[in-house]
Specification:
Layout lengths: L23 H13 L5 H10 L1 H4 L12 H10 L2 H15 L7 E9 L11 E8 L4 E7 L6 H10 L7 E4 L6 H9 L3 E6 L5 H12 L4 E9 L2 E10 L16 E11 L5 E10 L5 H11 L1 H14 L11 H17 L8 H10 L1 H8 L2
Parallel strand pairs: 1-4, 4-5
Antiparallel strand pairs: 1-2, 2-3, 5-9, 6-7, 7-8, 8-9
Length: 364
């Protein structure tokens, strides 16, 4: 995989020049190498640098030695996150091979440890996940006193989506977002929940009063459960008020899922609804909607378990947002390493112990 470092070469150093004891172009590679090797805090990164000093000196100048943990914190808290995200997107764009019909799932994740005492606000990120590539494509922070509705359009603007299918949970079910996806020459599948009020009622009524145009079932076994998903699709939009205002809307979708847990003998049932610009192909839609949950299982869950992101307590400036980019760089590099069959934690341990493996991950 291509070395990500060159895509951050244009980052502006936020520090006053006379106070720069450490080079920004050396702080970033130390940080990425440390995070790949298991670092989860500024203290971890600084300690990693001290322990690997002799090796780091073989390709870095380090005129003032290894920065302190306070220096790492101050630098990343001050770096412009828009510039960091721009470099991240440029790197991912150079390695991602989005194919026609690939599912790009968009969903939000709160960094629970960033809530300050006495305050309700915490850092909330919205990410785009390419299911076929197994890559985080981009992320955007949700502004304070706002929600994902404002962050999703900015995230979509950063992406090349031609030919893909964009899936978004209920918060993204907005006419403007649907129109934006179609303008990007992509298709959409948007979840419809109670927050959509009248639309949700009209979609449910359609399945009560109209015949389905197509039905498909899928059964999966694994992880101690059996899951059956029945997808029904209606192309008749006659009961949807102002249906024409939804760009290229073609069909309504209902997913009826039933999960049987072998250990407990319990069965869970759930019904979900969506609207889509795709043709009313129940088999394809069943698969697309199933793939949306890759962002939960392969991104959010891995970041929490493999990177302890949910315990992240970085609060100063842009520190949490920029550290989340370091985590996503590391995740993309680790997921696309095929030389080891170990999980994310195992690969991070190997990177810490094995310098050739670490260099292979980074692309050096």
């Amino acid at each position: 995989m291509k070395n990500p470092l060159k895509y951050f070469a244009e980052l502006r150093d936020p520090r006053v020049e006379r106070n720069r004891e450490h080079l920004l172009e050396e702080i970033l590679p130390i940080s990425i190498a440390a995070v790949l090797s298991g670092a989860e805090s500024w203290n971890d990164i600084a300690e990693y640098g001290e322990d690997k000093l002799e090796w780091l000196k073989t390709f870095l100048t380090l005129p003032s030695g290894i920065p302190s943990h306070d220096t790492f914190n101050r630098v990343f808290a001050a770096l412009d996150p828009e510039e960091m995200e721009k470099g991240f997107v440029a790197w991912v764009s150079s390695i991602a091979k989005l194919t026609a019909g690939e599912v790009v799932a968009i969903d939000g994740k709160a960094l629970c440890g960033t809530r300050e005492g006495g305050k309700k606000a915490l850092v909330h990120m919205v990410s785009a996940w390419a299911e076929g590539n197994g890559l985080v494509l981009a992320q955007r922070k949700v502004d304070e006193k706002s929600n994902e509705i404002t962050a999703i359009p900015r995230l979509l603007n950063a992406l090349e989506l031609t030919g893909t299918v964009v899936t978004i949970d209920a918060m993204g079910c907005q006419r403007g977002i649907a129109h934006q996806i179609i303008e990007k020459k992509a298709d959409y599948v948007l979840a419809v929940k109670e927050n959509r009020g009248l639309l949700a009622e009209q979609v449910r009524d359609s399945f009560l009063l109209l015949d389905s145009d197509a039905v498909a079932e899928q059964i999966d076994c694994g992880h101690g459960r059996v899951e059956r998903r029945k997808c029904s699709v209606i192309a008749d939009l006659g009961l949807i008020e102002k249906a024409a205002e939804w760009a290229s809307l073609q069909a309504l979708v209902r997913i009826e899922s039933e999960r049987y847990h072998k250990a407990t003998g319990k069965t869970e049932r759930e019904i979900r609804y969506c609207i889509t610009s795709l043709s009313p192909d129940a088999t394809r839609l069943n698969s697309v909607i199933r793939q949306h949950w890759g962002i939960e299982n392969k991104l959010h869950w891995v970041l929490d378990v493999g990177f302890s992101e949910d315990l992240d307590r970085k609060r100063a400036g842009h520190a949490a947002q920029n550290f989340s980019i370091l985590n996503r760089i590391a995740l993309n590099l680790l997921k696309h390493d095929k030389s080891s069959t170990r999980g994310i934690k195992g690969k991070r341990l190997k990177a810490a112990w094995n310098i050739p493996y670490l260099l292979k991950l980074i692309g050096i």
